[in-house]
Design goal:
4 helices; 2 strands; about 140 residues; mainly alpha; flat
């Protein structure tokens, strides 16, 4: 097979729709959360399970009523916990962490105080005047 070089003259720039650099949906297309909220707000007549009367409930309210009915009918603990979490908020979960720190890898332990002082003095002569190297002061 012949070694073919890519030719820039064969490339065509993106125009308008389908441009991957755009990253947005076309105008007029609703976001999925907008559609879902509209559906959940639709009112439908149904019998109120508490008093037996015909009332209007949103789809979201109907879903809540189904969960409540399941809790009352079956004693579903997970459904009850979900209801309570929605009403009162979730109980914060404690997080425990332990960490052990050891100072056995200190390379300066083998030096005397006099030797450390000599190392510090020798290091001072290595600092370039006007630089911020070694100065941790803000």
């Amino acid at each position: 097979m012949a070694n073919r070089k890519p030719r820039l003259e064969n490339l065509k720039p993106f125009t308008g729709k389908g441009d991957p650099r755009n990253g947005r949906k076309p105008k007029g297309v609703e976001h999925s959360s907008t559609r879902l909220l509209r559906i959940l707000k639709v009112l439908v007549k149904m019998k109120n399970p508490a008093n037996g009367k015909l009332e209007k409930f949103s789809v979201l309210e109907q879903m809540d009523l189904k969960v409540i009915a399941r809790v009352l009918k079956t004693g579903d603990v997970a459904a009850y916990k979900e209801l309570i979490d929605r009403l009162e908020g979730r109980v914060p979960q404690p997080v425990a962490a332990t960490m052990a720190i050891t100072a056995t890898d200190n390379p300066f332990e083998k030096f005397t105080d006099d030797q450390l002082a000599q190392i510090i003095e020798a290091g001072k002569s290595q600092i370039i005047p006007g630089s911020t190297q070694g100065n941790d002061q803000a």
